[in-house]
């Protein structure tokens, strides 16, 4: 896709690194350069206890990130692909060091070697799993954390403090309720992007969705409505245009379901109907009731921890009604109800497909930050080059306009705005998605593209077309021409 842009960005950073007046600066620039070819860095952000670490585990399909309390939850932790398990501690002062770790029943337990979270820049967990290939997930302690230092560390990781380069290329933001600090945080992330004002780098998830409808069986439907309302709220929309409900706890349980858990759930489902109903009335009863003896209170408490009250209710209903008959069918059914698949597709369309572009954008932002922070005479020339690169890139412009359209910053009739959003890659970057038609042979797609090209030319020529729309028309024409010259080029 964005070969030319990525190459050009790479060339500017290489040149800057070669000419840098100090070894330190040169090294910083080379590290930045490496990001261009590295995996996309997706940070999971949100308030403490929003369910970030749980969702990260659900996305990886393994129990890696520690949840709830513990000192490791207070450190920014990167989970990236590695051929063998390895944990590196990056202190604030000094080079990274390998740290021992172990894994018992639960998540990874990392030995920090007596270092306080405040002295650690971040931890890096490398893990051999397919899910982390091409995607690094960054777990953050949360804004408005207990300690201001930890809050600040989160901020810095995501937005880059003044003079610092941001760690994340994109953010998955977990919302539980629209707290004021949620808004401030997203503002900060947005401000530091190259194409200022674009929220395409942030996708929102309404987390712990099962709790929204009091854990009733229709909780996810209720949560979907709430998520929709959130996404329509101008304050939320301006910052993260899409919000989907997700139940990370259930997604994680589904990905790691054990036979013994299925057996316990099935035993509950077999009990007399009124007994089951009484047992599942509240979390307290489920965890503490004397009966049944099998599964006893300890096992039921375990089920609650793993599935939540909603998850247990759903699982018992699925087994009791005969809709699922074994652990793997149950896992599939629970995964479907967790909202994890919808979240995954959203992440694919919004981030993975334009991974190269987002990385190029981050590297440009980083390069700007580094250059602005030096008194090196050549920095001004290089900065000029960065600005030219940004303003001449149609791909970055698409990203920028996409953001403007989504947030309603551009005043257009809904149908026209929707067509442009699609065309600029808002629902996927392939030709069919951009054209808004079903996938078809490229001759058919080419015909459609030519027709749309013609129609945007006509809008552009119309005497009543505003200047703003005229600019959009030109971009639309450019997008279509790029498609016709590239993916849809004739024989
Ligand atoms: N019911 C329910 N509980 C959740 C969900 N996600 C997380 N939790 C629980 O919320 C608590 C905090 O989760 P954690 O992932 O540590 O939140 P973090 O501080 O944002 O990383 C834990 O006890 C989780 O088990 C969810 O989707 N549903
Ligand atoms: Mg956490």
Low-confidence stretches: 190-198
Domain unit count: 3
Please give the count of helices: 21
Number of strands: 11
Average pLDDT for all residues: 88
Question: Major beta sheet, specifics?
Answer: 9 strands, mixed
CATH homologous superfamily (4th level) name of the largest domain: P-loop containing nucleotide triphosphate hydrolases
Q: Assign the CATH architecture of the largest domain.
A: 3-Layer(aba) Sandwich
Overall radius of gyration? 25 Å
Q: How far is it from the N-terminal to the C-terminal residue, by CA?
A: 19 Å
How large a portion of the residues is in β-strands, by DSSP E? 5-15%
Tell me, what's the shape? globular
**Helix proportion range:** 40-55%
Question: Which strands sit side by side, in order, in the main sheet?
Answer: 4-3-7-2-8-1-9-10-11
Q: According to CATH, what is the class of the largest domain? A: Alpha Beta
Hetero ligands: guanosine-5'-diphosphate, magnesium ion
Question: Could you describe the 3D structure shown?
Answer:
The protein has 491 residues and is of the alpha/beta class. It contains 21 helices and eleven strands. The strands form two sheets. Strands 4-3-7-2-8-1-9-10-11 form a nine-stranded mixed beta sheet, sandwiched between helices. A two-stranded antiparallel ribbon has the order 5-6. Residues 190-198 have low confidence and may be disordered. The site of guanosine-5'-diphosphate has 19 residues, from helix 3 and helix 8. Guanosine-5'-diphosphate is lined by residues 46, 48-54, 67-68, 142, 207-208, 210-211, 247-249, 308.
């Amino acid at each position: 896709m964005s070969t030319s842009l990525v190459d050009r960005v790479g060339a500017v950073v290489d040149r800057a690194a070669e000419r840098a007046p100090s070894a330190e600066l040169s090294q910083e620039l080379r590290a930045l350069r490496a990001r261009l070819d590295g995996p996309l860095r997706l940070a999971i952000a949100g308030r403490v206890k929003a369910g970030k670490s749980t969702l990260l585990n659900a996305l990886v399909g393994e129990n890696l990130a520690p949840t709830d309390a513990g000192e490791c939850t207070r450190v920014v932790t990167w989970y990236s692909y590695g051929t063998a398990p390895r944990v590196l501690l990056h202190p604030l002062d000094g080079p990274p060091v390998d740290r021992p770790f172990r894994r018992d029943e639960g998540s990874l337990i990392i030995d920090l070697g007596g270092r306080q979270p405040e002295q650690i820049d971040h931890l890096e967990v490398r893990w051999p799993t397919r899910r982390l290939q091409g995607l690094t997930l960054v777990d953050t302690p949360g804004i408005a954390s207990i300690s201001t230092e930890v809050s600040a560390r989160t901020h810095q990781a995501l937005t880059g403090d003044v003079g610092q380069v941001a760690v994340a290329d994109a953010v998955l933001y977990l919302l539980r309720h629209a707290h004021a600090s949620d808004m401030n945080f997203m503002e900060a992330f947005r401000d530091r992007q190259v194409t200022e004002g674009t929220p395409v780098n942030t996708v929102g998830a309404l987390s712990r969705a099962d709790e929204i409808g009091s854990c009733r069986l229709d909780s996810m439907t209720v949560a979907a409505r709430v998520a929709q309302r959130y996404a329509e709220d101008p304050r939320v929309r301006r910052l993260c245009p899409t919000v989907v409900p997700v139940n990370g706890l259930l997604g994680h349980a589904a990905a790691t379901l054990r036979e013994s858990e299925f057996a316990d759930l099935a035993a509950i489902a077999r009990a007399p109907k009124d007994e089951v109903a009484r047992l599942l009335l509240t979390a307290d009863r489920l965890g503490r009731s004397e009966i049944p003896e099998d599964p006893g209170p300890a096992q039921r408490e375990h089920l609650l921890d793993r599935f939540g009250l909603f998850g247990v209710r759903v699982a018992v209903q699925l087994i009791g009604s005969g809709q699922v008959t074994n652990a793997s069918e149950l896992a599939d059914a629970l995964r479907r109800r967790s909202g994890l698949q919808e979240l995954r597709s959203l992440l694919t369309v919004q981030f993975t497909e334009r991974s190269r572009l987002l990385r190029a954008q981050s590297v440009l932002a980083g390069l700007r930050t580094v250059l602005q922070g030096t008194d090196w005479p050549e920095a001004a020339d290089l900065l000029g080059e960065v600005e030219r690169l940004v303003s001449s890139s149609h791909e970055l412009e698409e990203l920028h306009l996409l953001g403007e359209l989504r947030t309603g910053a551009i005043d257009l009739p809904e149908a026209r705005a929707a067509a442009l959003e699609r065309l600029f890659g808002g629902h996927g970057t392939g030709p069919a998605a951009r054209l808004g038609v079903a996938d078809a042979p490229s001759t058919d797609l080419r015909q459609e593209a030519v027709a749309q090209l013609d129609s945007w030319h006509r809008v552009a020529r119309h005497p009543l077309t505003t200047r703003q729309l005229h600019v959009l028309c030109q971009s639309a024409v450019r997008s279509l021409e790029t498609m016709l010259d590239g993916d849809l080029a004739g024989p």
